[in-house]
Amino acid sequence: MPHPTLVIWDAALTRYDFGEGHPMNPLRLALTARLAEGLGVLGHVDVEAPRLPDGSDEFLLSVHSRAYVDAVMAASANPADADTSFGLGTEDDPAFVGMHDVSALIAAGTLRAVQAVHTGEYEHAVNFTGGLHHAMPVAASGFCIYNDAAIGIQWLLDQGVERVAYVDIDVHHGDGVEKTFWNDPRVLTISIHESGTVLFPGTGFARDCGGPEAEGMAVNVSLPPGTGDAEWLRALHAVVHPVVTAFAPQVLVTQHGCDSHYSDPLAHMVLTVDAQKMAHQSLHELAHDVCDGRWVALGGGGYELVDVVPRSWTHLTAIAADHPIPLETPTPDEWRRHVEAITGRTAPTKMGDGVAENDDVWFQSWASGMHPESQVDQAVMATREAVFPHHGLDVWFD
């Protein structure tokens, strides 16, 4: 029997730092690890620091071009040499000393997580520092330098895995992973996100469903601004679960960006940590339903550094460890004192936002039928119409 859960973590990963004032503040990672430790979550898992495979960064070339990796290395050594034609040295992706090294280390962490699950060493693996889903094969994008999720998936394919499902619940479209596998029928990419008509990267619409050799393998649920808990959970279950089940992957890789929260400064959704926890749990259960529990869970976006990211990803880690934390659980006194000492802010006192009842956020399943007046249901139906026939699924009914 495999050990239950591997967690990739080391304080060195907080060196992924674009500088003061940038939304991608590595404090969110340190506070997550500290909260998970304070609640005893890390005592239920094996924690491992990432290392470059064979001491080399050559593994990056499975997804990224040599020219791009060389450009990152040059910018990493001297940020003044950043080449904007590769997306480096921009407002979103400013160059910093050591950028290549820590970005490669994050990607190596996800590679290790994928390898551990594939070989049966662990049932689940979590790298909440990963999920950098916007990075393209030849360019940085959206705070992402190397696309660790795509690198991990490509490694699985190189081992002969025939079907990998990638589910992305970040508020932003998972465009880099989708682009990498756009025409590969072995990879199902699903992204549930705020509409690209109002949010970066401006892509990911229902009609975007894969290349000529992989029609229906890219699945996009493009939701309107202001979508809340019940509607979002309804959309997730109405699309993700039936398509993944029909695809029958051998491994499930998920990205858990928590920037869909109502307090996130970069988006316009109104979810709570309560609903995010339900989504983490639901994807965990899906992994057991479809691929014998082989599950790799990654972090992603999330820019409310104190109130959201640490709680959401601690819930994710606890769920992967099979020791879920009730939403009414108080946050540790020591953690709150630490937050106030380093940020001057008052930290949340409980692990939930107070919306759920008995740890459950109510939502109406798609089995109740479509609500034509609902913009969310219209978006869900557009996706179902675009991709369900490719998977032999009924557009109208579960």
From TrEMBL:
Pathway participation: Ketone degradation; acetoin degradation
Keyword ATP-binding set for record: no
Annotated GO MF terms: histone deacetylase activity
Keyword tRNA-binding carried by entry: no
Matches recorded under InterPro entries: AcuC, HDACs, His_deacetylse_dom, His_deacetylse_dom_sf, Ureohydrolase_dom_sf
Ranges of residues in domain Histone deacetylase: 22-318
Family annotation (Gene3D superfamilies): Histone deacetylase domain
Keywords, alphabetical: Acetoin catabolism
GO biological process: acetoin catabolic process; epigenetic regulation of gene expression
Family, similarity comment: Belongs to the histone deacetylase family.
Protein name per the record: Acetoin utilization protein AcuC
